[in-house]
Here is the input.
Amino acid sequence: QVRLVESGGGSVQAGGSLRLSCAASGLIFSGTDMGWFRQAPGKEREFVASIRWSGDGTFYADSVKGRFTISRDNFKNTLYLQMNSLKTEDTAVYFCSNHERTRWVNWGPGTQVTVSS
Here is the structure.
């Protein structure tokens, strides 16, 4: 079965950086498009970034473009999200997911990111 486990969250001041990781197992990671989502308190889960299976196509929400970078290591079955110039509005639980056919299928438990002013 597919297992996704996020890590790397924490508390940081505005302007700081964090690097999230997502360890994947139970799937052909090197052939799977992956993505990051986030959910802030009282809000719906929203798309943050995604990356093609080959790593050569990345997509970002406008709110994080230029500050966040999604990447992957297909040898380590790991997805990353480098977050720079963090803002208080980036505070959320961050999730990774795998994309199959037309939908995002599996989700990890998430990792909390808290940005203080």
Q: What stands out?
A: The mean pLDDT is 97. The two ends are 40 Å apart (CA to CA). The chain is about 0% helix and 55% strand.
